[in-house]
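Exam prep: given the inputs below (a chain plus iron/sulfur cluster), describe the expected output before reading on.
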Amino acid sequence: MMYSTMKTPGSMDNTMTAVVADANGDIFDLEGYAAVGMSGNYLEVLTASETLPMPHGSELMFLPDRIPIVFNLMTDQFETLAENPYQPGEPLFPVAVFNSPAYVNTATCAYEEEDFADYLPLFSYGAVGWHQDGFCSAVIKVDEEPRQDLRLMKMEDVHAGIQRMRKSLPDNRLRAHLEKCALEYGCPAAKNFFIGRCEAPLPTSRTCNARCIGCISLQKDLPIKSPQNRISFTPSPEEISGVALAHLNQVKQGIVSFGQGCEGDPLMAAHVIGPAIAQIRSKTGNGTINMNTNGSLPDVLSGLFDQGLDSIRISMNSARKDLYTAYYRPVNYRFEDVEAGIDTALRKQKRVTINYLNCPGVTDSPEETDAFHDFLKRHPVDLIQWRNLNFDPFRYWTTMSQAVSLGEPLGMKNLLTGIRERFPKIRFGYFNPPKERFEQAFDVHGK
Ligand code: SF4
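Solution:
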């Protein structure tokens, strides 16, 4: 694989030490070598000034069947280092970081695949280095809210909440399903429902009209396991409104959201969601009813807005039709339908968020940057959630670069700065805001 070097810093004082692992998975820093980040097929030496201390709750991951790319401070060269230079014969492996929510990757872990390598599981693989006694991640913080901060989500509170909800919603299958989500999948939204804070999930749909290559609830074509199974039943409007009201009646500025990782797309279940929203709004005006969706059915959306849906979050990996289609592989809809879904919401003055699935090298390519600027000009949404795409970064870049041209990346920081300057009204974040805070601007710009 031919790599192009993007950036080597003026002075090496500000670099970070490379972090690698041995065959036992023991992780260590490699003196004499600087940490490197990858954006598509571009390499850059990471600097301490362009990184943050690794966020609490992030996880380091050892990458099998791959060789780390590091920067040799003696020879001033990038090197694909298969063996530990201090222990000849000992193989080395790359180490990536799965950063906590609210942090967007600016570079992915730099490595070269072995010929026999298989797809990596569905996580994001951020670049990490060692600096001044700590791990540092190549990230930008995009949201201050501690909504999924594990320190605030104690398991004893989750268990207590499960007992409470079993009493108040004894025969509710959706309540029972969320127990599995909280305990087996470790879903932060399901945990928050039982703890009684922030945003609760309302999974409803067994099907989807997209076939995303990185779908986390159904994998058919690629040798990748989906981390969750799709919900196996369609909850009734009464079961949905029961769970929603249990949350909105106890949580200040509470949010309930359709469209979770353990289901297809909620627009496929509008026949139960519509009546459920009407039931919720007949009982309370509290809280925000949100939908995370691929936004592909504008007429269905229009009906749900009329029944009381407050806000939508539309997921997309690109503002370029070819790149979107290569990832979402839509069935009986086109990218233009997603744009029409957004325009329907804006026309009805509903809140619209773009859930922008980010992968450095693709998202910050000049072509994608231009297309996204043009998209935001035509569809002035309220908020961009900068999300890390949970997919093998090298395989994603390879697949996408076969679909479209991808020039030298501009850098994620430049991408965010450019959008901030050109679209000052559009906010950046990571979590769905409650309607009480729709107006509040929250914006972290770089460090
Ligand atoms: S839109 Fe969601 S549920 Fe549908 S295929 Fe994509 S990730 Fe899966």
